[in-house]
Amino acid sequence: xxxxxxxxxxxxxxxxxxxxxxxxxxxxxxxxxxxxxxxxxxxxxxxxxxxxxxxxxxxxxxxxxxxxxxxxxxxxxxxxxxxxxxxxxxxxxxxxxxxxxxxxxxx
Length: 107
Prior knowledge:
CATH architecture: 2-Layer Sandwich
Number of strands: 4
Shape: globular
Radius of gyration: 14 Å
């Protein structure tokens, strides 16, 4: 399994608009993507302008395909709520209780 972590610096007063856009516009896009598994959105409880999302994918190739084909459209949806561009980091999932992944086991 593979994850994309997207960290955002949100404009003041826009966190709810951003999370609504993720819930109502971006989640449906993700659900249609081959290899998409899950999405978790985290909103900082100490910084009202920080939001991080974790999307989980069956394979690195699935995540890369999404990045090439749909992520540019997703960026257009969220950009009005952000200060600057989000930072994107990619990771291989080593362990997950929810997705029953153990270190060393092939995804």
